[in-house]
Write a structure and sequence with these properties.
Helices cover about 30% and strands about 25% of the residues. By secondary structure, the protein is of the alpha+beta class. Helix 3 (about 60-65) packs across helix 4 (about 75-80) and helix 6 packs across helix 8.
Length: about 220
């Protein structure tokens, strides 16, 4: 089931250059109508499993692997509240570097320091006394007591390049949640009900409504 086939229509005032009348209309898909997971399903831990997106794997490929239907890619996207593939889906290594070049302007800019962060520090018993990856200043120092009487100061700050920062963000996008196949039928039924129009002054039928036409009153 392709997502756009399920979208309702809207009778919109035509802005085409071939339009000859003020009341000429065209029927288009209402792309502003959007489905979402029912709250009881969204909050049910048992309704989901997790999936690690591999390099160059598109949403339709994931849908094929999980649901045996590539046209259910929209279920993958809605389940993870993804509305912008470029920003919210992991990029391939090459695409990521191209994105970084566009964002930071040059190879040198890509390798510049984005921020400084801590390295993990442990005591002699292997206990963590300073967490790693805490954002700090370049000159950050950390003092702790060694052997219960000796004060030790360390400089655990390390630089993180723009590329490393973007790469981490990209990797974080690889783990997504998957709606289990057993819940798929209920979700599709809910989605179809959400897409139907309710009775209103714009209502024509459950899948079509008319938009306001300012030309009819000379505005």
């Amino acid at each position: 089931m392709a997502y756009f086939k399920e979208l309702p229509n809207i009778s919109y005032v035509s802005l085409l250059p071939t339009t000859t009348r003020n009341d000429d209309r065209i029927t288009v898909k209402n792309i502003f109508k959007r489905a979402k997971l029912r709250s009881d399903i969204d909050q049910a831990i048992t309704a989901f499993t997790y999936y690690e997106i591999q390099e160059n794997t598109r949403p339709d490929v994931v849908a094929e692997q999980v649901y045996d239907d590539p046209e259910l890619d929209w279920v993958i996207l809605i389940t993870n509240n993804i509305t912008n593939i470029r920003d919210q889906w992991p990029l391939s290594h090459n695409d990521l570097y191209t994105y970084c070049l566009e964002k930071y302007g040059s190879d040198a800019g890509v390798q510049e320091t984005h921020h400084w962060e801590t390295q993990e520090v442990k005591d002699k018993f292997g206990r963590i006394i300073l967490e790693g990856k805490l954002i700090v200043d370049e000159s950050f120092k950390f003092t702790y007591t060694k052997d219960d009487y000796t004060a030790v100061s360390v400089s655990p700050a390390q630089s993180v390049s723009n590329f490393t920062y973007e790469q981490r963000n990209n990797e974080d996008k690889r783990r997504i949640k998957i709606l289990k196949p057993g819940y798929l039928g209920a979700f599709i039924t809910d989605m179809r009900n959400m897409m139907k129009y309710s009775t209103s002054s714009q209502y024509i039928d459950r899948t079509l409504k008319v938009s306001y036409n300012p030309k009819e009153i000379g505005v």
